[in-house]
Amino acid sequence: MIMGCSLITELDEIAKSAIAELCNMILGYTATLFSREKIVVDITPPTIMSGDNIQFSIPNTVVVCIPLLFEDESKIELNVSFVENIS
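Now predict its structure.
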């Protein structure tokens, strides 16, 4: 993966920060699109989780997986969870 002009070879704190910022940009743009349709959304800061066989459960949510595929066949999955109609 390349960040700016630097090749990233490990998932260190700088790489995690870059991934979090990418998530912020994607979700910020998505919130803008929803706003144009008069749909209000609240965005929370991203949480970075890494490792094998990570499992978690968030009641009453829907999770959408967004795979990011790179030229070297590596992959990062962004899992976005949302809750509809919070009162």
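The two ends are 40 Å apart (CA to CA).
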